[in-house]
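Quick start: what a row looks like.
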Amino acid sequence: MWWHLWFATLFPHWSASVFLPLAFAATTAYFTTLRLRTYLHPFQQEEYDSPRLLQWWKDKRAYDRYASLGLAIGAPFGFLQASAPTLTAILWLVLKARQEPDPTTTAKKALVLTQRARHIWYLAAGLNLPVLIALTVAPLPAWVQVLLLIAHIQTLPPYLMAANTLLRPLQTWQNKKYTTEARTLLTRLKPTTIGLTGSFGKTSTKYLLNHILSASAPTLATPGSVNTPLGIARIVREQLQPNHQYFLAEMGAYGPGSIAGLCKLAPPDIACITAVGEAHYERFKSLETVAQAKFELAEATLARGGKCILNVDGIPDHLWQPRVAQNSAAYRLVSTRPDVLRDGDTLLSEIVQAPKGLALTLTRNGEATPIQTPLFGHVQAGNIAVAYALAAELGLKPKAIAAALSTAQAAPHRLSVQQIGTQTLIDDAYNANPQGFSTALETLTLLGHADPDHPRRRILVTPGLVELGTAHAEVHARLGKLSATHADIILAIQPQRIPTFVEAAKATELHTFATLAEARTWLQTHGQPTDVILLANDLPDRYEARWTL
C-alpha cells in the first residue's frame, strides 16, 4: 500500500506497525491533556470538591462526543492495526485538540493556573499517560481497543479527582506553611482584626467598613469575595504592612468548621454576622446548620474578649436569641425593631430610598445620626447599620462615620447603579440571594418610575439563583411572581434550570436564552435609549457554559 511506501521513505528504520500506535498514543495523550485542562476549570470553580465535580459532570452531561465519534467510525477498519485508518485517527485527534477551548482565556470567569491547579493538571495527565499507552499497545482485538479508548476519554474527570487526592498531603503542608506565615505576621504586626461573615451582605459591609476606617487610619481588607484560608493568607503575606491599623477579613462558610479554621488563621478582635439565610441550603441543608457555621465567628471572637455585631433583622429570632442570652454583654445588635435592642445597640430607622440614594437614621446610646449615601436598596441599609456599629465600637465618632458614608460606593457588581449612555444599568451580578434579589427588583421599579409622568421600561436579566438545595423551586416561584410585578420585560437565562420562575414570570413579557451573551444580543437589538436594566446574578461557567465536547 502507498501508506507503507510513504512511511518507509520517511522512516526507513521504523516499522509502521510499531510507530503508528505509539504516535497515536502520543496524539491521544496530547488531546486528553488539553481535555483535562477543560475539566479543571469547573473543578476549580467547585473549590476542588470532588463530589461537586461529579454532580456537575452528571448534570451538565459534559461527556466527549466528537473525538469518540471519530474513534468509533474507525473501529470497523481496525485502525490501530492498519496504517491509513490510524493516520486518519491521529489527524482527527489533532484537529479536535486544536479546537479544544482554552478556559484560561475564553471563559467568563477564567481558569487561573495557580500552583495547585497546575499540580493537579500535571499529575492527572501523568496518571492518564500509562493507561493510554497500555490501551494502545495491548494485544487486543481492534474493536475492544476502540471501546476501551472511548471509555477512557469519557472518564477523564476522575483522573483530576485522583490527582487532587494524591496531592492532598502536599497541599495540606503548603496550606499550613502559608497560613502559619500569615498568622505569624498578624501576631507580629498586631492590626485590629475584624471578621465578617453572613449568608449575604458580608462583602458589601466589608466595603463600607473599609471606606469608613480608611478615612481615619491605614486599613487593609481582603479584596472582592476573597474569603478562604489561602486567599486570606495570600493577602496578609503579600499586602499587610506595619502601618496597617485595621485588617478586615471576610470569612466564607463552605462547611461546618470552615469559619473556625479561618479564625485560627486570623483571630478576630471584633466581628459581625450580617445574615443567616437560604443562600447556603445546598451545602448546609438547614438554617440551623448555617447558623452554627456562621456563629463559629462569634464564638472565636468572644473567646478573645471581643464583641460581635449581629444584624438581627437578617437572622431568624430563634437562631440568635438563645445565643445572645448566654452572653448578652458580648453582643451588639442592629435592628429596625426597638423592642429587641438594649444599651449599646444600634437602631435603624427612617429609611428612605430616593432616586439619588439612600437616607436613614442610626441611633446608638440615645444619639441619633442621620446618614445620607449614594447607595441603593433597603438591604444596603442593614449593611450600613452594621458597618456603622462596627466603626462606633472601634471608637470612631458618629459624625466622622456619617461623613465617610456620604461618599461610599457600592461594592462592584452588588447593586451598583451605572449610567451607560442614556440607559441605566443596575449591576447586581454577584448578589445571589433571595433577599438581595427582592431589593434589586425594588430598585428597578424605583429608577424606572422615578418620573411618574415619563416611566421608563424596566428590564430584568437573570439566570435565577444557585445553591438553594430543596428550596430551589419554592424560592424561584416566589421570585418569578415578584419579578413579574416589577419588570416590564424579563430575559430568563437557562430557563430549564428555573422552571418555577419561568412559569410565574409569564405574567409579564418573557424571553428565554441559553446564555447571558444571547440576552445581551437581544438587548442590543431591542433596547431603547431610556431602558432601566437590572442584571440580577450572573452564573459562573460551570452552570451556563455549553459543554459540547
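That is the whole record. The first helix runs from residue 2 to 10. The first strand starts at residue 192 and ends at 197.
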